[in-house]
């Protein structure tokens, strides 16, 4: 009996400490901006199909077509390196990411060489049997972990962990976010203490009244949760930021 009580107490303490640690990691009040002038590594997850279209439309507006010129992003200056993450076999998203980079470079009159495109296994294929999904998810987690740990330089002359991870779903992007959270939880190679891998989730414009499954899973764990319709603010448990339509 004493051993059982000890195990229960130990489990309770570990669970409480883990919950406290997770809350601190994702607390919006603890956000601190990166130092001005510091190189920023942006990772963008393209979810294929409509998700890719929305993401690229939002980025094009932020970089090129935003009418308030002063609020446009300086693509090559604000984000010194970009990593585009696509699902394996998604050739369309690969081509569209390359076209986006070349279009922006042409618009800015600069060369767009500071980016790479990486494919990870899909978390779940279309029409894939549910009983095989855990296996494919594990493959996706392993690939995402390898991707995030690929660049861990501690000097400013080399590529480090991504500073910001931007996604709008679906499954593969969700796995990427949870993998980054796991690495931050254990402060692997100082990623949490160095404020790396801050996560931003943008809910789809098509979601007007109800959050998507990805949104419901991520609303309490991402650093910023952005919605495009005011009625979704309450649906995200008070953590959502309504910024208007972005597409």
TrEMBL record:
GO terms (BP aspect): dolichol-linked oligosaccharide biosynthetic process
Record keywords, A-Z: Endoplasmic reticulum, Membrane, Signal, Transferase, Transmembrane, Transmembrane helix
Pfam families: Alg14
InterPro entries (alphabetical): Oligosacch_biosynth_Alg14
A single GO molecular function term of this UniProt record: N-acetylglucosaminyldiphosphodolichol N-acetylglucosaminyltransferase activity
Membrane topology field: Single-pass membrane protein
Leader peptide range in chain numbering: 1-19
Principal localisation: endoplasmic reticulum
Highest taxon above the source species: Eukaryota
Residue stretches in coiled coil: none
Bilayer-spanning residue ranges: 169-188
Localisation: Endoplasmic reticulum membrane; Nucleus membrane
GO cellular component: nuclear membrane; UDP-N-acetylglucosamine transferase complex
Subunit structure: Heterodimer with ALG13 to form a functional enzyme.
Summary of the function given for this chain in its UniProt record: Involved in protein N-glycosylation. Essential for the second step of the dolichol-linked oligosaccharide pathway. Anchors the catalytic subunit ALG13 to the ER.
Family, similarity comment: Belongs to the ALG14 family.
Protein name: UDP-N-acetylglucosamine transferase subunit ALG14
Phylogenetic classification of the source organism: Eukaryota, Fungi, Dikarya, Ascomycota, Pezizomycotina
